[in-house]
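Hi support team,

I submitted a single chain yesterday and got back a structure, but I'm not sure I'm reading the token output correctly. Could someone confirm the output below corresponds to the sequence I sent? I've pasted both exactly as they appear in my results page.

Thanks,
R.
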Amino acid sequence: MSKLTESLNAATVRREWLLIDAADKPFGRLIGEIAVKLRGKHKPGFTPHADCGDFVVVINASKVRFSTETKQQKEYRRHTGFTGHVKSEKSGELLAKNPEKLFRLAARGMLPKNHLGREMLKKLKVYASNEHPHTAQIKANQ
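Hi R., thanks for writing in. Yes, this is the structure output for that exact sequence:
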């Protein structure tokens, strides 16, 4: 009898709902942890070509901690499609205006750049305050 490596697929994966409080945590380390959970690399049966990650709910996103240099220097750029129309926003401005977008952009950069990565990103739920509508899913997991 030989032992085979377990390979997960859409039918065999068991997803959980994880709640992460972002208050006073360093942004970079928090995003790294979120990306690992979304991808499913923390599970023993991790399969690179399958979406085996968990749902992640982040609360208190507006209270995350940045270093002063990062707030003033880190830029997120986008292009409108017209000549010379490159728009950029500093991470400090995004944190004040739309922390959900900041978390989504940072997590997107750490996930695969294909259809699988886009599916993983849909499992990220970010809320600026302490309240969220996923209490039933999180309590059902515990």
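A quick pointer for reading it: The chain has one domain: 17-141. Let us know if anything else looks off.

Best,
Support desk
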